[in-house]
Amino acid sequence: MTRSIVVVTAGLSEQSSTSMLADRLATESVAALAKRDVEATAEIIELRPLAHDLTNNLLTGFAAGPLVAALRSVREADGVIAVTPVFSASYSGLFKTFFDVLEVGALDGKPVLMAATAGTSRHSLMLEHTMRPLFSYLRAVIVPTAVLAASEDWGSAGGVSGELSTRIARAAGQLGDLVAGLPNQQVKRDRFADVPDFETLLNA
Questions:
Q1: Which end of the chain, N or C, is less packed with Cβ atoms under 10 Å?
Q2: Alpha carbon 171 to chain centroid, angstroms
Q3: pLDDT in tens, the chain (204 residues)
Q4: Contact call for residues 9 and 18 (beta carbons, < 8 A)
């Protein structure tokens, strides 16, 4: 069975570093699955053209246009790669809006690889302090290695440094392990994910 990888990228221009990182992660992830004798396809969802539909969804509560297909692709994917530029030490508003309108439970037990682009590597902790809590809340299975690409990681003609290439390969391999091991396209759910709060326990 062919596995599907969906890449959600919040780059703000057609040739942004965010889009380039998304492309490389998609290619490496498909290659990693091929090494595990698993056929896979990668679909890249650019959020920039969906900005108006995302705003309308927030205001009306209903998805329309191409946004419907994008949300369906994420819901049905075997694995997700989420890539955002860093704005004010956090993910972009466009990126957050997409995951705000994603239906509840769409990422339950789904492998997610986190990645971001920034002007400097000093923003690397954003992945741990901001993105990881977001996807933990959404009950995704988060790939251990997160990837930050800073300005100094990019060479001429879109080339990448050896260190960035190593991080991309490691993260893609970990995503490949999770996706390749999915029984019935679902990762076993954490049995501690829905622990009741203390007040509920006391009332019981």
A1: C
A2: 12
A3: 899 999 999 988 877 899 999 999 999 999 999 999 999 999 999 999 999 999 999 999 999 999 999 999 999 999 999 999 999 889 999 999 999 999 999 999 999 999 999 987 878 889 999 999 999 999 999 999 999 998 888 765 556 778 899 999 999 999 999 999 865 444 344 444 455 655 666 666
A4: yes
Q: Rounded to whole angstroms, how far apart are CA atoms 19 and 149?
A: 11
pTM of the model: 0.85
Between CA 55 and CA 145 the distance in angstroms is 31
CATH of domain 3-203: 3.40.50.360
Cβ partners under 8 Å of residue 143, min gap 6: 111, 112, 113, 114, 171, 174, 175, 178
What the block records as the tokens of 99 is 């995951």
What is the domain partition of the chain in residue ranges? 3-203
Contacts of 43 (CB under 8 A, 6+ apart): 4, 5, 6, 7, 73, 77
What angle (nearest 5°) sits at the alpha carbon of residue 193, between those of residues 186 and 73? 35
